[in-house]
Amino acid sequence: MVCCSGASPARAKRVGAERFNDQEVARLVKRTALAAGVRGDLSEGERERLFAGHSLRAGLASSAEIDERYVQKQLGHASAEMTRKYQRRRDRFRVNLIKASGL
């Protein structure tokens, strides 16, 4: 059985043809981030406030290695400026600082 919550199978809701609403997605992201220990340096309450459904949008915008205009179109942003707000630290793991410094 496929379920969409951490509840026991007897109490779990079955996944159907309907899509998740925004609150369900937010709860799923929060629960997953907590379970994975993401940002373990923060309190549980701080992590719950930090992660939500928009974390998925920001992750997509930040990790997509395509032209920004395609990301903008996919996310439905009217301006490139809004898309850039979602693109969080894009080069964080791409730039090798040791190579960049010549070492």
From TrEMBL:
Q: Name one GO molecular function term.
A: DNA binding
Keywords of the record, alphabetical order, are:
DNA recombination
Q: Which GO terms describe its biological process?
A: DNA integration; DNA recombination
All copies of the Tyr recombinase domain together span: 17-90
Q: Which residues form the signal peptide?
A: none
Q: Name one Pfam family in it.
A: Phage_integrase
Q: What is this protein called?
A: Putative phage integrase
Q: Which organism is it from?
A: Mesorhizobium alhagi CCNWXJ12-2
